[in-house]
UniProtKB/TrEMBL annotation, chain A:
It comes from the Bacteria. One of its GO terms (biological process) is transmembrane transport. GO terms for cellular component: plasma membrane. This is ABC transporter permease. Pfam families: BPD_transp_1. Residues 95-284 form the ABC transmembrane type-1 domain. Keywords: Cell membrane, Membrane, Transmembrane, Transmembrane helix, Transport. The chain crosses the membrane at residues 35-55, 97-122, 134-154, 160-177, 208-230, 267-287. InterPro entries: BP-dependent_transpt_permease, MetI-like, MetI-like_sf. It is a multi-pass membrane protein. Gene3D superfamilies: MetI-like. Belongs to the binding-protein-dependent transport system permease family.
From TrEMBL, chain B:
It is a multi-pass membrane protein. Keywords: Cell membrane, Membrane, Transmembrane, Transmembrane helix, Transport. It is found in: Cell membrane. This is ABC transporter permease. GO terms for molecular function: dipeptide transmembrane transporter activity. It comes from Leekyejoonella antrihumi. The chain crosses the membrane at residues 9-30, 101-122, 134-157, 177-199, 234-256, 284-303.
Amino acid sequence: MSEGAVALTLEPEGVSLGRADDQSLRRRWAASPSALIGLILVLLVFVTALISLVWTPYPPLAVDPAHNLSGMSSSHLLGTDQYGRDVLSRVMSSAQITVYAGALAVFIAALIGIPAGLYAAWRGGAPGEAVLRLADLIYAFPALLAAITLSAAIGASTTTAMIAIGIAYTPVFIRVTRSNALLVLSSEYILAARSYGRRPLAIMRRHVLPNISATIIIQMTLLFSLAILAEAALDYLGLGTNPPTASWGNMLQDSQNYLNKDVMLSVWPGVAIFLTVLGSNLLGDGLGDVFDPRRKR
Amino acid sequence: MIRFTARRLAIVIASLFASTLIVFAILAVLPGSTAQVILGTQATPDSVRALNQQLGLDKPLWQQYGNWLQQLVTGNLGTSYISQQQIGEQITQALRVTGPLVLFGMLIGLAIAFPAGIIGALRSGQRSGALVGAASQVGIAIPTFVGGILLIIIFPVKLHLLPASGFPGWSNPGQAIESLILPAVTLGLVEGAIISRYVRASISEVLQSDYLRTARAKGLTPGQALRRHGLRNALIPIVTVVGLELTGLIIGAIVVENVFTLPGLGQLLLQSVANRDLLMVRDIVMIVAAAVLIINMLVDLSYRVLDPRVMSRV
């Protein structure tokens, strides 16, 4: 029996990528409008981040006091801030911070959580239980509080904040990886692989990881959204990305002092955060339907 | 039940203990001495040493940790070396703002979540149901600080209604409540969006149950059947979510207090971070963490009380 065939009969609750059948995968994307909208929004953020690396209408840090708080105009589409910096350029370059922050937190959580979850599933018994208890302890500590504490100790930065957020959400990956890996490990082809002497790491790589990857990707998408929310909040509180580097969170904080002069200064970064979070939420929720048509309705 | 309660209590105490270790460890690795930070760059080494001694920061780490644990258990948190005020006193003052804010926020959240969730469940597949679902997706994606600023733009800035920031103190209850309205609505909108999804899911499940079909077969309308037989059953999982979301509200309040410059626990925490008042930071962080852990335990226990089926399985 080939691996692809096994994957289809497997996993009562988990989902599989179904990569053998690209045609139907494409149809399922089309049939899940919310996943498609989410994908487009998330791609938009990534593309904006990439474009802003090579081009923004003005340099995002270029100060022009003579034209500060100019409001929307043909030369500054979204207006300028209190120092005369171009808001569109700053909103665009902030996408870099968002992508970096989300990716870093997801990377850290996955880097620790997936191996730990696989280990807990493979070993079981007391060591497996110990991993789970540790995960519970970490999970009980609120993520934002952990990030604030770490910033207080070693100073605020995007990286500090996302290390804290990444570690705080590690337990989610441990639990999801473990429970899905347990399902795969209980199947007969794993028994077969073990019986002809395949080593644990090889079994994980060849059989377990491919079969649980869909669930993990969904979790990554949802964590991405949580992480950028946390990052924006920490930036807003002055505990994340340091000025003058633009981020949607610190732009919002700045703009709040100028609400009487130009409310749109607050609206643009707010809309950017909203669309990004909405996009990754919709994508995360919708991916389940795309990967697993049985789940639909 | 007693065995279960004892077990949960033991886990919470272990978690609290672990949290104190984590918080202490994170804040103890601070680069530069705390006394140096307070006295500034002009300080002489002698004066730094003297202050270190006064604060007990010259003692070995384990002794500092022991002292802190003792302070936490006895509730005597000592004096802040920045504000020169009692830390316990300042935290109690702040809780008088944060407590009501969280409570009002939750009430508003529930007032939104129940109608929205029930409409969403009863009208699923219809336009109004889909609309409620879309609204909750939107509500979840708006962070509290964005929503808060939006409300400030609409009410104080454009309509000249309600204060945009500050808090007059409880000696003037009318104005105090007035200045809590927008912050509470900010928290409530987000919570309402989150909880409404659970309300909808829970009610939809009940609607598909056999006993409700029987009630319908007797001739009750969907609304009547739901009121007489469905709501109580649907409430069980919702109570859990409401409890867990209470902890989300406490964390959310930290952010919202800073949007509306309310002198609550969140603002005190951030001010202490800005002033590098680390002894205050670790106390506040521990109090918030303890609140979250204890609420989670109570939720867990209430779940067992509410649903006897869970009890019999324990």
